[in-house]
């Protein structure tokens, strides 16, 4: 098998939440495989820009708060105008709110669902309208262990990530025949801002590590291979899969 199967040369990728953490690592991995990158988010993208441009690929920062669907049309327009197309979308931006279910507020419910689920759906819809014209495209949603498990004290997060797994399958059903592959990556426990509170809690940290067969937290760059694979021609017959990259967590 030739490594050309995994080449993203000539492709344009949109990655949301690409300033830090998993989104940044995915943006860099896609660029290393040959894709130009539009990085979408509400914070400065300077660090990501530096690393992506060091790979020799083009970089476009698109400022957008995905707490509402308002910027979605503009994200797709700026990508197509600035980089000449839109071949790959990674719905990575996400937030988490922690509280007991008995106390969970409507504000914490809406905030998480709006970013993690609603914006991911409507951005997929807007991107797919471009991909359909070309008869080709790759959409990768970032799911979670809580797409399979219940978790604790994270009601809206679990609902959003279980929702993302369902949406991945629904969109695959509707768009596979149109040449669009919709799949998801379910990261296990990765050391990013998202899991800072867990790592700071000595007993949770110990329990989590004890269950990970690989014996360590994931590093953002551990996700790069799966992202490149799902974005590439090597995954052309993959539709609706939710692929765990979890150090073996789910196998336990
Ligand atoms: P992170 O470091 O907190 O990154 C989250 C990203 O989403 C940041 O770029 C953040 O931007 C962006 N974002 C949040 N709200 C946004 C908004 N309203 N508009 C635009 N961008 C917004 O956490 P991470 O771990 O890399 O998370 C990335 C994805 O992986 C999330 O979907 C998360 O649920 C998922 N995930 C993470 C883990 C893990 O163990 N870390 C496990 C499973 C799934 P700002 O920096 O501006 O806030």
Q: In words, what does this structure look like?
A:
With 252 residues, the protein is α/β, with parallel strands linked by helices. It has one domain: Rossmann fold. Helices cover 42% and strands 15% of the residues. The chain has helices spanning 21-32, 46-54, 72-83, 106-134, 155-175, 196-200, 202-211, 224-231; strands at residues 12-16, 36-41, 59-63, 88-91, 137-142, 180-187, 242-245. A 7-stranded parallel sheet has the order 3-2-1-4-5-6-7, with helices on both faces. Helix 4 (106-134) packs parallel to helix 5. The longest helix is centred in the middle third of the chain and has 29 residues, at 106-134. It is globular, with a radius of gyration of 17 Å. The two termini are 32 Å apart. The mean pLDDT is 97. Bound molecules: NADP nicotinamide-adenine-dinucleotide phosphate.
Strand order of the largest sheet: 3-2-1-4-5-6-7
Provide a count of the helices: 8
- Rg over CA atoms, rounded to whole Å, is 17 Å
Indicate the CATH topology.
Rossmann fold
Bound molecules: NADP nicotinamide-adenine-dinucleotide phosphate
Helix content percent band = 40-55%
Question: How can the largest sheet be summarized?
Answer: 7 strands, parallel
Q: Outline, from the CA principal axes?
A: globular
Per CATH, which architecture? 3-Layer(aba) Sandwich
**Which oligomerization state do the chains in this entry correspond to?**
single chain
CATH homologous superfamily - what is it?
Answer: NAD(P)-binding Rossmann-like Domain
Strand percentage lies at: 15-25%
Structural class: alpha/beta
State the separation between the terminal residues, measured CA to CA.
32 Å
Number of domains: 1
Mean pLDDT: 97
What's the total count of β strands?
7
Question: For this structure, what is the CATH class?
Answer: Alpha Beta
